Amino acid sequence: MPPRTRPAALPARFDPATITALAADFYRDCGARVGRRRRLSGIQPRELAELCGVTPATISRLEAGTIRPRDELRITVAAVLGCEVNDLWPYPPSAVVHRAAARAVA
Question: In total, how many domains does the chain have?
Fold first, then answer.
């Protein structure tokens, strides 16, 4: 099997590490949104964890952007914080990568 090559449309700087970094940035930004919304709501991390049915460590990792939450957790967190899912996670990480790639190619 021949080695996989990068599509010609993507510039060299869009290697897998760059794409991974873009996704990591997305989850960090979303985690910061969750943390801000939680603080504005006056809810402690432990309370949010209890209301969402997860551990405090999960909330900590969510706010730090080190986990990629499943849809059910996203929906629950948004409901508990009294907002829409899109307020916290405005678009899927794949959209971030595609937009960045389109800007780099243009």
Answer: 1
